[in-house]
Specification:
There is one protein chain. The chain has 128 residues and is mainly beta. It has one helix and eleven strands. A hairpin with a 4-residue loop joins strand 7 (68-73) and strand 8 (78-83). It is globular, with a radius of gyration of 13 Å. It starts with a strand and ends with a strand.
Amino acid sequence: QVQLVESGGGLVQAGESLRLSCAASGRTFSDYAMGWFRQAPGKEREFAAVVTWNGDITYYADSVKGRFTIARDKAKNTVYLQMTSLKPEDTAVYYCAAARYRGSSYASLTRRTFYDYWGQGTQVTVSS
């Protein structure tokens, strides 16, 4: 089992920044690819960003590319999502997810159903 706890959400104005954190506990953190997904009201949960098990490769959704950065700290068993230039359309509940996978397939890592474990989510609200 892997437990994931997100933090760092909040209410910000458009153009501001936030950093989300996801602390992992349980099984070996380094065996898992770590992703961030988000779900806006009335919409399906969608992929935002992912970092591979070794931290070497990252993928981003087109909607966040150039504004969001994902990174993992192996010593702290934590993955971060640095969000800059936030827009009202970034408003959503953000979820951290873990997949036990040492590959780098974009098709797999961006698919919501590929992930084994999920956090409870943290709300991000961006006002215009």
